[in-house]
Specification:
single chain; 405 residues; mainly beta; 20-stranded mixed beta sheet; 4 helices; elongated
Length: 405
């Protein structure tokens, strides 16, 4: 009986696979209706194939069916244009598990480009998301935007013109961002309030800030930790910050290479960091007021080592930057740390234990008495700042089905 049961189960699985089909959408007619109908009609295992061409959409599209691939003919051949979008929501919203979106472009969304929310196993591959008129505060906030998701793969994606972050992963777990390019966004790549992320082999250039690893208060997932940022090219981040008023990313100084804020167990290594006018690497505390008594605003267990650091920090754009640079000989050192250590955050009974491993010197220790307290600064330049080795997070491993080409 056991053998018969296994045979029946296998047969059912094969039958389901055999029934998988491709729903093809071609240009012409009502593109909005044709694409959304295909997404509604898709069944698990199906592929929605959007043929080469330009598709003019007036509203966002959405997918809520698991195990579906949405595939174009190439990031320069299949273009979903939201020039005529009437509402301000995202261009493409995904709320189902085991979805792959690949080989297409999304242009000029009023809101975010492609967003997944609350899903497991989401793959973005060979995509372009762009605001074609260049950097503007009226552009959508995020290009590729997985949030509250698990097992996230972003591979060979290009984003240009986002008014917050080009590639943004928020409140998610088990993340890989690789082989991608972020250009002319406020933040190129941002990992926020997330656990276990590998960010590697990317190019982040001509943004206000290259790569950010942040943790913020009052969010459903708190205490971001365990991110590795390595083998990236973080160069010439020189676009003036054009974030919408009130956005936290609006505080990122133009010319920031890599910034770590209020996060734990972050390792930055083997990157090429060059031609960023404010600083190569900044490690800072969260400076705004907050009422979340579970929040820790200090960065801790941060390692910066073995990076190839070129010319950076010649014209820092943060408050007091010019004065600090002058005190340090005219240029901000490769690594800048606010130096907040003996500090007790709200809701805590003792100072936070802070450990750093900064061997890419020289290092600027600003010795702030509290987060953001520029007037308490006592800048000191040291060859290194090393409290001893900090164990590196384990490499992120995604499900095999997700990493296949």
């Amino acid at each position: 009986m056991k053998g018969l049961w296994i045979g029946a189960a296998t047969a059912a699985l094969l039958a389901g696979s055999a029934q998988a089909k491709t729903l093809t959408v071609t240009p012409g007619g009502d593109a909005q209706e044709k694409i959304q109908t295909a997404l509604l009609d898709a069944k698990p295992g199906d592929t929605v194939m959007i043929a080469a061409g330009r598709y003019e959409l007036t509203d966002g599209i959405s997918l809520d069916v698991a195990n579906v691939t949405v595939k174009g003919a190439g990031a320069d051949k299949t273009v979903l244009s939201f020039d005529g979008q009437k509402a301000s929501g995202e261009g493409f919203l995904i709320t189902s598990n085991k979805v792959t979106v690949r080989d297409l472009a999304v242009e000029n969304c009023k809101g975010d480009g492609i967003k997944s929310k609350g899903v497991d196993q989401i793959t973005f591959r060979n995509l372009r998301v762009e605001w074609t008129a260049g950097p503007k505060s009226t552009n959508g906030a995020y290009g590729v935007y997985p949030v509250s998701s698990t097992n996230v793969l972003i591979d060979n994606v290009t984003v240009k013109g986002a008014s917050d972050a080009g590639i943004y992963v928020g409140q998610s777990k088990n993340i890989v961002v690789r082989n991608s390019r972020a250009e002319m966004n406020v933040a190129g790549i941002e990992i926020e309030n997330s656990y276990n992320a590998d960010v590697f082999d990317n190019v982040s250039t001509h943004n206000a800030g290259g790569i950010l690893v942040f943790d913020l208060p009052n969010l459903p997932q708190m205490g971001g930790h365990s991110t590795r940022v390595f083998r990236n090219q973080v160069v010439q981040n020189d676009t003036n910050n054009f974030a919408k008023k009130g956005a936290i990313v609006g505080d990122v100084p133009t010319g920031t290479g890599i910034m770590v804020m209020a996060n734990r167990d972050i390792h930055v290594f083997d990157n090429a960091i060059d031609q960023n006018q404010t600083a190569a690497v900044m490690v800072v505390s969260y400076t705004q007021s907050y009422d979340d008594l579970t929040y820790n605003p200090l960065p801790r267990d941060i390692a910066v080592h073995d990076n190839k650091i070129g010319k950076n920090g010649w014209a820092p754009q943060f408050p007091g930057g010019e004065v600090i640079a002058k005190a340090m000989g005219g240029t901000i050192p490769p690594v800048v740390w606010d130096g907040v250590t003996n500090f007790t955050p709200k809701g805590m009974s003792a100072p936070v234990a802070v450990k750093v491993h900064f061997t890419d010197g020289p290092v600027a220790d600003l010795h702030f008495a509290a987060p953001g307290n520029v007037f308490s600064a006592k800048p000191e330049v040291k060859p290194t700042l090393d409290d001893g080795p900090i164990a590196e997070p384990k490499p992120v491993v995604l499900p095999k089905a997700q990493t296949g080409q």
